[in-house]
Amino acid sequence: MSSKSEFAKSQITAGFGCGASVLSTFCEDYDLDSDIAVKLACGLGGGCALGEICGAVSGGILVVSLKHGAETAEDSGAKSNCHARVVQFTDVFREKNGALTCRELLECDPTTDEGFQVYLKKRGTVCVGLVKSSAEILEELGY
Question: What's the number of domains the chain is made of?
Answer without folding.
Answer: 1
